[in-house]
Amino acid sequence: MYKELIATNSVDLLFREKDSIYSVTSYSCDIAFRPISVDVDFGDRCFLKDSENVKAIDLHEHLWLVEEGEDYESELCKTKKPASLNPRTISIYSFDGKHKYSLPEIKGELHALSANEDWVYLVNEHVYGYNTDTHECHDLGIFPLEGNFSYQGTYRGLHFFIQESSLIALRGSKEGKGLEEAYRIDLSKHDQLATKDLSHPLHILTFYQSEVWISASNQLYQIHTDTGELLSTLKDISIPEEMLLEGALGYSISSGIYRVFDFKKHRLLSEKQLGLFTTYEGQEYSAEYTLKLVHEGFLYTSVYVPDLNEHYLAVFDTQKEEFCWYGITTYRAPIDSVYILGDRLISCDGVRAHFYQRTAPTAPGMDEYIKIKKIQNVLDIDPATGNYIYMKGGSEFYLSLNGVQINIDFKPYSIVQGTWPEFITTIGNYIGVWWKRSSKENGRKNKLQIYSSEGELLNEFKEVYSLGPQSTYIGRRDQEGHNLISPIDGTELLTKRVPYRLYEENGLIFGYSETKIHRLDHTGDVIWTCSLDAVASKKREIIGIAHGMLWIQLADIIGINIETGEITHQLSDCYVHVANEYSELYQEHACYLRDTDKAIIAISCFGVKIFDTATAECIESYSFQNVDPQGMGRFSLCSLPILQGNSLTFVGTPMEERRLYLSMNGWAGIFDLKARKMVWADSVIPWQEKKETTRRLDPKMSRLYISGDKLYIIDFDYILYIYQRK
User: Which letter does DSSP use for residue 583 in this model?
Assistant: First the structure.
């Protein structure tokens, strides 16, 4: 899942602010921090040279808050919240390490609360207003809460505190001169609270939408964040620590128990004892778990094995409810922090910072492709040439031919009216652009434009359809019937029209309807007719001609003798049948005639069957799960399988992502039929981008094309992604 890039020594703490990572290292009584890029490039060190007796450091709103006290320990405190209540000084440094201000005689914990664009509230016994731009500081008076309290976080402009059995929400005053109470709710005064003597401390479980969820004893409280109104109480649910939220699901690991709570549906989905932990050597031990991060359906956890006195960074798969990856072991301290930036995983154990790179869900030895370009508003691409169709202004269409942009001379209908360039293809030395048009009166009608390699419009044909790459002709349909015409000059092949759709390959002509296949001569007369009533199927695709047979994909694969019209072979593709039975797990199945040996390649989401068309025998049959369980077998959804040589390209969704966004395909991959393994896969659209933009790969149009050393794919929003082989 991840491969380690580097481990850096002498890193005490890591901080993340927006998309940047900063390391903090102690040197005697000095502290140094430096930025780190996701490519593991370290910036220059910046020393806080005049700091003394450093206990802890924090980063907030581009300010370094350094705690200094007399009870200095030789090692930098591994926590940002020291327990000492002895008076100490809080020194404030600018982001470049210059000392700006000091708050002396601070007892207990100091909280930094975001106020507005330029101000921060520093809260202890007093409230201080600190300007992050000018570095001026104002004592705004006594903090409004007396006695012991705990800061729980800031959400929707309110600052939340717990004091005994009460939840208190504070907001910045309208004059910007301090904090004032927005509301207070004492849960001990509600009948729902089982006892006033709480067996577990009251704490905020999480914030979700406009709600704050409180955990107390064995009950959960749902409170409206803005008003403090108690919305509901859930009894007999104990979650003793905060939950990390992803979507509507909250996750926690406490005392070895893994819990999942659905905050939208108000119910506990899972409560499971994790049990023993399996190390690299395959040995099982009792372990202690601390949840650090949730990301894309995976929990990043610090694991401590007391018997070995070892600490692990481990990743827990919430779909399978099991650990799926372990990071490097440490011997001195648990994992303190975990961050993810792009495809990088960065962690710190108080001794080292570890940098990992995410790998695709495939087996080792994959081909490497680098994403080199993204082009907006691309409707289709011809992978043979790299030429493509794109759109400007919502109604103007252009061809990109060898890097030259050419306006398409066609504007009678707009997109709203149903006219759309469907695909671009190479026809000999010419470029063909297919248009589709839908109308209630006439049904779907297509049009083909023929361009020269220089972009000159040479010809145009209406009411036509493609026969596929195996034919040098196109089909044409009018009120009199169907015919075959040359896409270059429009010459008709048949001397008369026929009442059925046509197929041509190497001079052989066939007509087909829902129930019959006809072989025709060049006049359009019928040579023989084959009835398909006995093998009727919703799917009817002509695969091609091989070894004297016309092969057709129905519920089964049938072979019709091209001389007699008899059904000679009926081959069962069990994967196709399975796919038909479980359509919710499957987008498309297909059959291809391989050029090299004229074998039929039957592909589904589940596996591959290969048939020898000379003997009608199945010569290969395997499921992806059996031959490539960590590669192709990890994909639960596969769409648009295309055979390109011995490479099967597809788009899909790995098992670990399926629960998060069932219909949001974001991955594309290449499966090698000879090697029987996936040789490349990539999250074309990263998970975070899918979640924020709903961008995805379209299961009907996002075909992955291979052309030389490049890959091409278009997403649902008509963005073309181009990869180049490394």
Answer: G
> Of 348, 288, 300, 320, which is closest to residue 25 (Cα–Cα)?
348
Is 57 inside a domain boundary?
yes
- How close are the terminal C-alpha atoms of the chain, in Å? 21
Three-class secondary structure assignment of 27-56: ECCEEEEEEECCCCCECCCEEECCCCCEEE
Average pLDDT, the chain: 81
Burial class (CB in 10 A: 0-12, 13-18, 19+), 5: middle
On whether the CB atoms of residues 463 and 478 are closer than 8 A, the answer is yes
pTM of the model: 0.52
**Residue the block writes with tokens 């090692």:** 75
Any domain includes 138 = yes
Average pLDDT estimate for 35-54:
68
In a domain, 74, yes or no: yes
Greatest Cα pair distance in the chain: 104
Are the C-beta atoms of 362 and 405 separated by less than 8 Å?
A: no
Inter-residue contact 214 to 221 (CB < 8 Å): yes
- 39 pLDDT band, cuts 50/70/90, is low
Determine the pLDDT at residue 536: 59
Residue type, 277: F
- Indicate whether 124 belongs to any domain: yes
Residues 6+ apart with CB under 8 A from 209: none
Q: How far is CA 212 from the centre of its chain?
A: 28
Most confident region among 392-401, 492-501, 675-684 by mean pLDDT:
492-501
Nearest by Cα to 465 from 451, 481, 447: 447
Domains contained in the chain, number: 1
Contact 686, 666 (CB under 8 A): yes
504, 497 contact by CB (below 8 A):
no
The answer to whether 132 and 119 are in contact (CB under 8 A) is yes
Residues with Cβ < 8 Å from 349, sequence gap 6 or more? 311, 313, 330, 332, 333, 334, 335, 336
| H-only helix segments in 56-204 | none
Structure tokens at 190: 């509600």
HEC string of 302-363 equals: EEEECCCCEEEEEEEECCCCEEEEECCCECCCCCCEEEEECCEEEEECCCEEEEEEECCCCC
Q: Which two tokens stand for residue 385?
A: 């040439």
Strand 635-644 vs strand 617-623: parallel, antiparallel, or unpaired? unpaired
Cβ(86)–Cβ(71) under 8 Å?
yes
Closest CA to 314 of 291, 297, 331, 295: 291
Asked if residues 638 and 652 have their Cβ atoms less than 8 Å apart, the reply is yes
Q: Check residue 329 and give its pLDDT.
A: 62
CA 31, 37, 39 angle in degrees (round to 5)?
A: 135
Reading the block at residue 194, the tokens are: 């089982």
Q: How far is CA 187 from CA 154, 181, 227, 497, in A?
A: 20, 17, 15, 83
Full domain range(s) for residue 34:
8-143
Task: Supply the CATH number for residue 134's domain.
Answer: 2.130.10.120
What type of residue is 70?
E
DSSP string, 70-92: SS--SSPPSSSS----S-EEEEE
**238-262 burial code (b ≥16 CB/10 A, e <16):** bbbbbbbbbeebbbbbbeebbbbbe
Say what the pLDDT of residue 332 is: 65
What does DSSP assign to residue 506?
Answer: T
Segment among 109-113, 440-444, 484-488, 717-721 with least mean pLDDT: 440-444
